[in-house]
Amino acid sequence: MDFVKRHIVSPGKTPHLKTVETDESGPFKDKDAAKQFTAETVDKIRDLQYRMFVEQKQSLLVVLQAPDAAGKDGLIRKVLGQMNPQGCRTYPFKVPSSSERAHDFLWRIHKATPAAGMVSVFNRSHYEDVLVVRVEDLVPKSVWSKRYDIINHFEEGLMERGTKILKFYLHISPEEQLSRFKKRLENPDKHWKLNVGDYAARDKWKDYREAYEEVLDKCSTRDAPWFVIPADHKWYRDASVASIVHDTLVKMDPQMPPVDVDLDEVRQLYERELNQQRG
Ligand code: AMP
Ligand code: MG
């Protein structure tokens, strides 16, 4: 199955999120089949990431946005965080600090973008500045409404330098979210994630949906597309994102740099050492 085609938001074809299924299971006959596919795909991602790291020309930025409990952390743990940490970093973006607030909204973001050869994974992102900021009225409309263009220009600048950008919205139903909140309550290891604000956000589900639809509409571009990932099944979420990241890296086609040493000379040095060691 072509997960890119299935989930990409093509410019001018923004879906109504209300009508997009959250519980898709794709081509997988069961959970185990999906997990097997994800494991194999993650291995292939690692090989390509290694080539990109050595090539040191291109880079990859993965943006994750989602309602609470939709699975950003799980996706990072099981898929994106499986890349070699020498070449991959995750950046969580929380409520801005006072020093971050004293700068333009992209200041903290720009510093986290990937250098040549690297992958950055954003757990939340600059898009919060047109999502939570809009829904919670944190700045006036005259301010946030200008940000879509600012974001598109910013991303164009990153692409100009060789950064490929993939943006994922994890699409979960309110029923599945509530069932995950229940599991959090029941599991003491997850109590640190509990947050009364998460319940308040449920009352604004429709406002968030509208804010997300505007993001998809204005900021899903041909070269920095958004994907809407059905996320009620964790295994489908992992498999589809893994597949999209893999296909993207294949297209980027990172190359090992040409060898600039004389292999015969190195072989001779090796033989000499070996002979010396043998006495
Ligand atoms: P979590 O990802 O659950 O740890 O929560 C991080 C919180 O930070 C979320 O409630 C976000 O909405 C909030 N957040 C992230 N970026 C911003 C921002 N630019 N302005 C306001 N709140 C933000
Ligand atoms: Mg949270």
From TrEMBL:
This is Polyphosphate kinase 2 (PPK2). The keyword Cell wall biogenesis/degradation does not apply. GO terms for molecular function: polyphosphate kinase activity. Gene3D superfamilies: P-loop containing nucleotide triphosphate hydrolases (3.40.50.300). It comes from the Bacteria. GO terms for biological process: polyphosphate metabolic process. Pfam families: PPK2. Residues 30-255 form the Polyphosphate kinase-2-related domain. SUPFAM superfamilies: P-loop containing nucleoside triphosphate hydrolases (SSF52540). Keywords: Kinase, Transferase. InterPro entries: P-loop_NTPase (IPR027417), Polyphosphate_phosphotransfera (IPR016898), PPK2-rel_1 (IPR022300), PPK2-related (IPR022488). The keyword Cell inner membrane does not apply. Belongs to the polyphosphate kinase 2 (PPK2) family. Class I subfamily.
